[in-house]
Amino acid sequence: MKTVFQKPEAMTDVPMHYCPGCTHGIIHRLVAEAIDSLGIREQTIGVASVGCSVFAYDYFNCDMQQAAHGRAPAVATGIKRVRPEAMVFTYQGDGDLASIGMAEIVHAAARGENITVVFVNNAIYGMTSGQMAPTSLLGQKTATSPRGRTVEEMGYPIKMCELLATLDGPAYLSRVSTHDSRHVLQAGKAIKKAFEMQQQKKGFAMVEVLSTCSVNWGMTPANALKWMAENMVPYYPLGVYRDVTAKEGN
Ligand SMILES: Cc1ncc(C[n+]2csc(CCOP(=O)(O)OP(=O)(O)O)c2C)c(N)n1
């Protein structure tokens, strides 16, 4: 019989711990599909960060390293520099990347490190039960902004693609979403491209993937997808913010 659906080889065959309605599992799969389709599983080293995806090393069927909170780009830099033939990626949440790890990501991008960053923006600290993240939206209620985020008290949400696009270092910056199947397919293409940039030694590549956290948002899985489409996508416009290969006409 013809196989029409199977787990990517780059994923292990274990049940995930993610909550119902969380899109981390989808994004893991997209990363694994990109690794499979490029045939790079044996040379890939992933860096798991801190947050809900802390157990990513259990789910990716490639070499993995655990980094302390926010330090994944620095750890990935070290691995890539001593093992330049390896394909190195980080997988980081918004609390990890845009809060405690802001310095690491900005400097890795500015240096144009030849690594791939998968940045999962779910607008909240998921693992620690829903505190406000740098990417929480204005008006968004979280455990630490129970009346909703205000500019006066907490300032504006940080747009990482736009911020990193002010630097000369990055080779590829793209924002995608997981709110419906069409966008999931587009997200997969962007993640694959971010690995291809590394293969072609173009330098720093980051894909920001808008994601749900239905449990901490206090929504059903279906409503979380709707909320993401109606609230996150307008504030975090999807698209390509840098692509050096487009300039080269590739
Ligand atoms: C140095 C340090 N500070 C704080 C924590 C606690 N901590 C663990 S996960 C987390 C939030 C992670 O949120 P995010 O990166 O958005 O990932 P998510 O869980 O939403 O996927 C925090 C604050 C920690 N582990 N280490």
Task: Explain what this protein looks like in three dimensions.
With 250 residues, the protein is α/β, with parallel strands linked by helices. It has a single domain, classed as Thiamin diphosphate (ThDP)-binding fold, Pyr/PP domains (Rossmann fold), CATH 3.40.50. Helices cover 39% and strands 16% of the residues. The protein contains eleven helices and seven strands. It has a seven-stranded mixed β-sheet with strand order 2-1-3-4-6-5-7, with helices on both faces. Helix 2 links the parallel strand 1 and strand 2. Helix 1 crosses helix 8 and helix 4 packs across helix 5. The N and C termini lie far apart (39 Å). The mean pLDDT is 97. It binds thiamine diphosphate (TPP). Thiamine diphosphate binds next to helix 4. The site of thiamine diphosphate (TPP) has 19 residues, from helix 4.
